[in-house]
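Recall the central idea of this unit: under ordinary conditions, the amino acid sequence of a chain determines the structure it adopts. In this exercise we apply that idea directly, starting from the sequence alone.
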Amino acid sequence: MNKPLIYVLSDSVGETAELVVKASLSQFDDGPYEIRRIPYIEDKATLNEAVAQAKEKQAFIGFTLVDPEHRRHLIEQAEEAQIECVDIMGPSIDAMRRFFNKDPRLEPGLVHKLDEDYFKRVEAIEFAVRYDDGRDPRGITKADIILIGVSRTSKTPLSQYLAHKRLKVANVPIVPEVEPPEELFKVDPSKCIGLKINAEKLNNIRKERLKALGLGDQASYANQSRIIQELEHFNKIVDEIGCYVVDVSDKAVEETANIITNKMKADSSRKNGQ
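Accordingly, the structure predicted from this sequence is:
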């Protein structure tokens, strides 16, 4: 038997309609389903063709169309063809028109009209992913912030959190057996932030991590002497760089992020002579 088919129609990207359709489908356990998205609809001919396809395939239609005429036309065509068709956004627009006593703008895709702030945030998030965990040392010279620390000091979640504040963050793991990238010693030390943690706290975190992975907690990764060795090596590296250090032992990611952003603001004010 063929999978049930749902057409998602939109005069914009169709992302909203597809998300709502998927949320609704999640309430039914007799899937799987196939979703076909038809975006950027501009004329009735495209709507007619979509209805004809849906009738042929015995499909369901979910749609977001801001043009009232197109909405009415699609609903009429679907009724004629005797296929299920649901207007996902129209009733909300109509209700808000009544509530605000104001006509809507009726411009497709307004929710996706991207401003400069959005682009910067996306760029920063992509940057954090690209230069996560020291995978490409070239990111060090391009970053606004470089986070350094031993394993399990929240470098990755902190990078992502700061990225949502439009900051380009690279993070570099510090391991005794691996020489830190030379770029780390060439950039402005004020951009580097060392993430410090006490040995006991780190030991507990690593043991829990090993348990979550289904491994025993006796591995060298969670060995106290190994952890002390790593932390001593970390202290040596941050001293050599001369960077600012934050103790993350008992801090949430948000708290550490606030400390870092406040430091950056203070550094910027000093540089500007404020």
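The chain is about 45% helix and 15% strand.
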